[in-house]
Design a protein that fits this description.
Layout: H1 6-9, H2 15-26, H3 31-36, H4 38-49, H5 59-72, H6 84-105, H7 108-122, H8 131-144, H9 153-168, H10 176-188, H11 190-194, H12 197-210, H13 217-229, H14 231-237, H15 241-252, H16 257-271, H17 276-302, H18 309-327, H19 336-340, H20 347-354, H21 356-365, H22 370-384, H23 392-409, H24 412-425, H25 429-455, H26 457-460, H27 463-466, H28 470-483, H29 490-509
Helix pairs in contact: 2-5, 4-6, 5-6, 7-8, 7-9, 8-10, 10-13, 12-13, 13-16, 16-18, 17-18, 17-20, 17-21, 18-22, 22-23, 22-24, 23-24, 23-25, 24-25, 24-28, 25-29, 28-29
Length: 510
């Protein structure tokens, strides 16, 4: 009734009783019942935002609701009497409810949670204290609010300063559940941390050791990546990069490929803010083991020293992803000039050039392995956005390589790579003249190849095969206005017409 008639309740005199009743239901020991009230709190928040009702006189009830939800989010002593799935689902939905309450109470939410955190830390030395369980629930609630602070940062900054002062001084040893929630929380507040470098410097020193703790390394890598992906954080951390790299270098080689890739990408985000020579030094340190590993695996395969092709392919894909992470560039293009300085290349492109022989060998040894081709395609696309006017020495190689891959496999992602290159250079008239020849040649070859495919009757009559070219046709039509001025050929126009036909046929087949 409340969900559909919330407005009606506010026309009565006993509004406080109604809200008190809802709070008591939210706090019900059977969390499934408490969970049912979340939609009602959302409905009331929406009515308040739309100024249909006014919740201001009832703020004290919403303050109490914050503590009720926090208490309900505490892990039980055991799951003997509590259904674990119900508990996890309650916490999942509680995130949204906390954000609804935050939109009403603003900084008061952090004041309530900060006060509770302070009390629990003070009680840690009390015999039979359950403070760590309470602290974990408080951290969960603070973490949930991270999604809502951007528009209210000024209002909450004072409270966050106090909370983070408590967090960086949490005593050790602590339960792994608390450490896990702590590092996840840090990742959520990466943007705020970038504006508070003194706190960030302390926190990054605490996060790095967690990267190598088996019980929480997943959360730690996620958090470290979030922090390093923030432009402000990366800029603040650049002066301390020697120390950061020294902390992870020895353990880097022992990480599994997925986490090594994530760590390398995070480190490369910070490297972008180093002076050119220093950036090159660290990029080479990160890239050299990858290139060496690629050569080692390729040699083992070509010399028939291993018979496990799947393992070889998996290893190569892992190393290519690490290299791709190293070449990803998240910095605003306008800022890149400060990094390039007087040098000829963006440092990432120098690394890419150094690995070019290995990449060529990968293609020669595994010319038709789609997973490897996808990795190469991604690597090329990311590289295209790393240097713009400093890219020309590598661009011709990329075009040649990509054309070979496409004509061998018809993989549409490669076509997207070439058209991405068109976008990169479309606004630079001096570069357009330099790359016009290679672009025209590559696009012409690909156009002729694609026309042949599009004209095959068996493909036009088989939607299951035809569907594979829908993406290609879509990409082509989006970028055709950019491609056509570079390679003004009849085939380019024909391909556009064929792509329209392909899309039409596919829709008709559906």
């Amino acid at each position: 009734i409340g969900e559909f008639h919330g407005k009606l309740f506010f026309s009565q005199k006993n509004v406080s009783q109604y809200l008190d009743f809802l709070v008591s239901l939210t706090s019900h020991p059977e969390r499934k019942i408490g969970q049912l009230t979340f939609d009602l709190w959302y409905e009331l928040q929406q009515l308040h935002e739309e100024k249909i009702i006014d919740l201001t006189p009832y703020f004290s009830i919403f303050q109490r609701l914050v503590e009720v939800i926090r208490t309900q989010c505490k892990y039980p002593d055991s799951f003997y009497d509590v259904d674990k799935e119900d508990f996890e689902e309650f916490r999942k939905q509680a995130v949204d409810s906390l954000l609804y309450i935050f939109s009403i109470l603003s900084g008061v939410c952090f004041q309530i949670l900060g006060t509770k955190l302070f009390e629990d830390v003070q009680n840690l030395n009390t015999p039979n204290s359950n403070s760590w369980v309470s602290i974990e629930a408080t951290l969960f609630c603070i973490s949930a609010l991270s999604e809502g602070i951007e528009e209210k940062e000024t209002e909450v900054n004072e409270y966050l300063q106090k909370i983070f002062h408590l967090l960086v001084n949490l005593p050790s040893p602590r339960p792994s559940s608390v450490s896990s929630m702590y590092v996840l929380l840090l990742g959520g507040y990466s943007t705020w941390l970038g504006k508070n470098p003194n706190i960030l410097q302390v926190i990054i020193g605490q996060v790095i050791p967690f990267l190598f703790e088996p019980s929480i390394k997943g959360e730690a890598f996620k958090s470290f990546n979030s922090i390093a992906s923030s432009t402000e954080c990366a800029r603040c951390l650049a002066p301390y990069f020697d120390s950061i790299f020294g902390s992870v270098e020895a353990s880097l080689v022992n990480l599994d490929q997925e986490n090594r890739c994530r760590l390398v990408e995070a480190l490369s985000n910070i490297i972008e803010f180093l002076p050119f020579d220093k950036a090159m030094h660290y990029l080479q340190k990160l890239a050299t083991p990858v290139i060496n590993r690629l050569e080692e695996v390729l040699n083992m395969w070509t010399n028939r020293m291993t018979a496990d092709g799947n393992l070889v392919i998996k290893t190569i894909i892992g190393e290519l992803k690490v290299l791709d992470g190293l070449c990803k560039s998240k910095r605003d293009p306008k800022e890149k000039q400060s990094l390039v300085q007087e040098k000829q290349f963006h440092p990432v492109l120098v690394i890419l050039q150094a690995s070019w022989n290995s990449l060529n060998r990968v293609l020669e040894v595994f010319p038709n392995t789609l997973e490897i081709i996808e990795c190469l395609s991604s690597l090329y696309r990311n590289s295209l956005f790393s240097g713009k006017e400093h890219l020309y020495p590598v661009l011709v190689q990329i075009l040649t390589h990509a054309t070979r891959i496409y004509c061998t496999t018809s993989y549409s992602g490669i076509f997207q790579t070439l058209l991405t290159a068109v976008i990169v250079f479309s606004n630079q008239k001096d570069m357009i003249e330099q790359v016009k020849g290679p672009f025209s040649e590559a696009l012409t070859v690909i156009t002729q190849h694609t026309l042949t495919i599009m004209h095959l009757q068996e493909i036009r009559n088989r939607p299951d095969i035809h569907k594979g070219y829908f993406s290609l046709a879509d990409h082509y039509l989006n970028y055709m206005p950019l491609a056509f001025p570079i390679a003004q050929t009849q085939q380019i126009f024909e391909l556009g017409v064929s792509c329209i036909g392909a899309i039409y046929d596919l829709q008709a087949a559906k």
